[in-house]
Design goal:
Radius of gyration: 29 Å
Distance between the termini: 70 Å
Helix content: 25-40%
Shape: flat
Length: about 150
């Protein structure tokens, strides 16, 4: 009886210790994403001289607009996956008389970057044809009871 109690105690302690071992991934950890999604492509589209509305169209609404420094917009993006290293991007945009003057932060425009979306480039949208899906058994019975035909799509 003592041996059984010792075996059960050892097994219980191993199971609880395994739950705390992060390298086993036994516990699901969610991804944490906060702030504005800021990518290098978005920052590459920014150019000094752009108006606030043009910047807001590209970057979205700023995360932080300080009431004491209204000429400064801050975009912060933080992503921590459940397992792995976190990513943090910060972009600070400074305006002077409603025009963009300076871009600072962890992401800055690349020297030879070309805007990815050209104005003259046509956009093609491909819509696949819809397929006819046979009605299920319950649907067929319902239509048989109500004396209706299944709708053709």
């Amino acid at each position: 009886m003592k041996k059984l109690l010792i075996i059960i105690t050892c097994f219980a302690s191993l199971v609880t210790a395994a739950c705390t071992a992060s390298w086993l991934h036994l516990v699901h950890k969610i991804d944490v994403q906060q702030g504005n999604v800021v990518t290098q492509d978005m920052v590459n589209q920014l150019k000094p001289g752009m108006t606030r509305s043009q910047v807001q169209f590209i970057m979205g609404s700023p995360l932080v607009v300080d009431t004491f420094h209204q000429q400064r917009w801050d975009y912060v993006y933080y992503f921590k996956p459940g397992y792995g290293d976190h990513t943090e991007n910060r972009v600070t945009l400074l305006f002077n008389d409603d025009t963009l003057t300076r871009i600072t932060g962890t992401l800055t425009p690349e020297a030879g970057a070309v805007a990815t979306a050209a104005k003259d480039t046509p956009v093609t949208v491909v819509v696949p044809p819809s397929e006819r899906v046979e009605p299920g058994l319950l649907n067929k019975i319902w239509h048989w009871i109500t004396f209706r035909k299944p709708q053709q799509s």
